[in-house]
């Protein structure tokens, strides 16, 4: 998993363990996904279909390699090997096509009326029976090369079908959870089983109607049925009740059922797990959970080998020696398993220790990150267990002493737990903590409430700071506390007495808690009833006290104001501004508080606003912006400058005219 293919080949020459790994069939895989897998009757060829692109691959077990590969036009729903070898194959494809292949390749292709999901081959009559999204069972005769009259069933749809190898009874599983049995000789229905009703037991929980998803005959009398809700039912054809019902407990449809005759086992598989169980008792023999989802399971005949088609490129091969011997083309597996039993080997991770980055920093090995001594995996690293022990001994040489001390402390705490312990109250909000402890004790004593106990605030980490940080201390003298808790004075006095006794016991260091003796129960009940009746008086009393305290505070503030001497305050005027009075700011504030209508009227009086009616009937308002003092001074200076220039021009023109008249006179 960590190494590339090139490095694996290089390691095979050096490492003995890697050389022991077995690849039974070379390139036993599909490009993306494998959907179905079957073995020919002679046991020499293993055929598998998958995607993508849709294809079929044939593997020769004698050569332990792939024999041929053929690509198809559409995906294969299922297929059947009609001959003893690979020379006659029928493929049921997604696009309502049935394709026939011979030894040389594609032979013929035809189309069926409806989409089909499964088919079976009837050897005596050479008929193919197709079931699918229709109430009819289509029959295609391969000897005559034509369709025959279809079988009309009561089902709306059918999912699977099978033909008994002994007496050739045809059975089909419907979407309504029933199994219909037909006699091919008379083309009449001879039996009906309601498997959906039989699959529901006291322990099973189903959400919908179970449909039939798998069907398999065993001999002349036994039949196994798999449902879409994950149950497997074993029937005797002579009875309408199942012999045994086995639940996978995953709620997933059963995809494959196989019979193992040597140990009387049934091998059932859904997309997640393969279960092997005894068909007489229902006892689990073993189970396997592959890494990827399962599409099909194939049991190699008369052996302990199991092959699966998965939602992954690799097709898995399992060999279980208890189920039977290895096939003759890989008989060396028996010798290997015997050697493995004699020499039990450790698993891959037995010699490694998983450590996180924080563990490496504590051990002082953070500098090894990126080196060959650490292998990155998930949120940490794998390192050699010997290196880990050495580093731990160097980092903490007194680990054994700490371990011994911790064990002694645990033993002492176990003995102390048998004694009566004092209540340990927190430093902050002691009265609140004591109140919570008393409420917990009352809930434990009273058995009337059947509600679940809520978690305690003292043990909840979310409220931990409330009993540690002094900022969260409850202020009992505040107005809100005294008004919302009118009876807090009497309750707090009782709790304060108890708190005082507990603090005295803690100070003395006593090991046994002496419960404070309170009043009699009758006195307490009368006290509580008085409190319930007079809570209005308590609220009034608290309000009266609050008014008196507020009056005293006002008197104190008034005395302080009289004693304080007022000092003159100085203000700095900005450069370029003229000081008028403090009344201007007060006028501005009064003006801003007025409504828009009052301000408009005031502006009209001052002449800065002119409101007139238009011809359309609306009103037109013209505003004149107020000028600041600085702008007004600047405009006056410009006006004065313009007047001075005019006077200069007039005097200059007057002088010129006088000079001209003087020259004419001379």
Secondary-structure topology with pairs:
Blueprint: H1 5-14, H2 16-20, E1 33-39, E2 45-51, E3 55-60, E4 65-71, E5 76-81, E6 89-93, E7 97-101, E8 106-111, E9 116-122, E10 127-132, E11 136-141, E12 146-152, E13 158-163, E14 170-174, E15 178-183, E16 188-194, H3 195-199, E17 212-218, E18 222-227, E19 231-236, E20 244-247, E21 256-260, E22 265-269, E23 274-278, E24 284-288, E25 294-299, E26 305-310, E27 316-319, H4 332-342, E28 352-356, H5 357-363, E29 374-377, E30 380-384, H6 385-395, H7 399-417, H8 430-445, H9 479-484, H10 488-508, H11 521-533, H12 535-563, H13 583-593, H14 596-606, E31 609-613, E32 619-623, H15 629-665
Helix pairs in contact: 8-10
Radius of gyration: 49 Å
User: What is the CA–CA distance across the termini?
Assistant: 127 Å
- Lateral arrangement of strands in the main beta sheet: 1-2-3-4
Can you tell me the CATH topology of one domain?
A: Methylamine Dehydrogenase, Chain H
Task: Summarize model confidence as the mean pLDDT.
Answer: 80
- Share of helical residues: 25-40%
The top-level CATH class of one domain is Mainly Beta
The counted number of beta strands is 32
The fraction of residues assigned to DSSP E strands is 25-35%
Protein name: Nucleolar protein 10
GO cellular component, one term: small-subunit processome
Family: Belongs to the WD repeat NOL10/ENP2 family.
Subcellular location: Nucleus, Nucleolus
């Amino acid at each position: 998993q960590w190494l590339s293919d090139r490095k694996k080949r290089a390691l095979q020459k050096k490492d003995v363990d890697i050389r022991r790994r077995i690849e039974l069939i070379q390139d036993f895989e599909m490009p993306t996904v494998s959907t179905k897998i079957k073995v020919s009757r002679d046991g020499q060829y293993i055929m598998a279909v998958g995607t993508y692109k849709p294809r079929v691959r044939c593997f020769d077990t004698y050569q332990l390699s792939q024999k041929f590969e053929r690509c198809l036009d559409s995906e294969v729903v299922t297929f059947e090997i009609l001959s003893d070898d690979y020379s006659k194959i029928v493929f049921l494809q997604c696009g309502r096509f049935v394709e026939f292949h011979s030894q040389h390749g594609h032979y013929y292709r035809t189309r069926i009326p409806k989409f089909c999901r499964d088919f079976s081959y009837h050897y005596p009559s050479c008929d193919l029976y197709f079931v699918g999204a229709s109430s009819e069972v289509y029959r295609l005769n391969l000897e005559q090369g034509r369709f025959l009259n279809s079988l009309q069933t009561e089902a709306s749809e059918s999912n699977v079908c099978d033909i008994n190898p002994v007496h050739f009874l045809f059975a089909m599983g419907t979407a309504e959870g029933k199994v219909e049995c037909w006699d091919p000789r008379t083309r009449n229905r001879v039996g009906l089983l309601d498997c959906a009703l039989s699959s529901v037991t006291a322990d099973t929980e189903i959400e919908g109607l179970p449909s039939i998803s798998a069907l398999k005959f065993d001999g002349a009398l036994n039949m196994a049925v798999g449902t879409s809700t994950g149950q497997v039912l074993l029937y005797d054809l002579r009875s309408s009740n199942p012999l045994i019902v086995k639940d996978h407990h995953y709620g997933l449809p059963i995809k494959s059922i196989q019979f193992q005759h040597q140990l009387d086992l049934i091998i059932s598989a859904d997309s997640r797990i393969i279960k092997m169980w005894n068909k007489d008792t229902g006892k689990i023999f073993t189970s396997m959970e592959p890494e990827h989802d399962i599409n099909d399971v194939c049991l190699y005949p008369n052996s302990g080998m199991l092959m699966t088609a998965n939602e992954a490129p690799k097709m898995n091969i399992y060999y279980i020696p208890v189920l039977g011997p290895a096939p003759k083309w890989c008989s060396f597996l028996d010798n290997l398993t015997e050697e493995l039993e004699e020499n039990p080997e450790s698993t891959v991770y037995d010699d490694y220790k998983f450590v996180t980055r924080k563990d490496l920093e504590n051990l002082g090995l953070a500098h090894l990150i990126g080196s060959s001594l650490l292998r990155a995996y998930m949120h940490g690293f794998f390192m050699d267990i010997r290196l880990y022990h050495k580093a731990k001994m160097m980092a903490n040489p007194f680990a054994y002493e700490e371990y011994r001390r911790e064990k002694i402390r645990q033993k002492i705490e176990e003995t102390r737990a048998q004694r009566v312990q004092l209540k340990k109250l927190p430093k902050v909000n002691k009265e609140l903590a004591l109140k919570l402890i008393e409420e917990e004790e009352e809930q434990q004593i009273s058995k009337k409430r059947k509600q679940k106990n809520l978690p305690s605030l003292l043990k909840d980490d979310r409220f931990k700071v409330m009993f540690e940080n002094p900022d969260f201390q409850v202020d009992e003298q505040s107005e809100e506390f005294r008004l919302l808790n009118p009876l807090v004075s009497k309750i707090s006095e009782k709790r304060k007495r108890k708190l005082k006794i507990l603090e005295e016991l803690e100070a003395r260091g006593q090991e046994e808690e002496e419960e404070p003796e309170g009043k009699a129960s009758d006195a307490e009940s009368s006290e509580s009833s008085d409190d319930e009746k007079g809570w209005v008086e308590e609220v009034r009393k608290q309000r009266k006290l609050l008014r008196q305290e507020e009056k005293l505070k006002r008197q104190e503030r008034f005395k302080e104001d009289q004693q304080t001497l007022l000092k003159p305050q100085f203000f700095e005027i900005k450069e370029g501004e003229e000081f008028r009075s403090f009344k201007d700011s007060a006028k501005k504030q009064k003006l801003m508080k007025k409504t828009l209508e009052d301000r408009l009227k005031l502006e009209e009086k001052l002449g800065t606003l002119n409101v007139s009616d238009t011809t359309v009937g609306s009103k037109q308002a013209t505003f004149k912006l107020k000028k600041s003092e600085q702008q007004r001074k600047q405009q006056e200076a410009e006006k004065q400058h313009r007047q001075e220039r005019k006077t200069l021009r007039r005097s200059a023109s007057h002088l010129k005219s006088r000079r001209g008249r003087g020259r004419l006179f001379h």
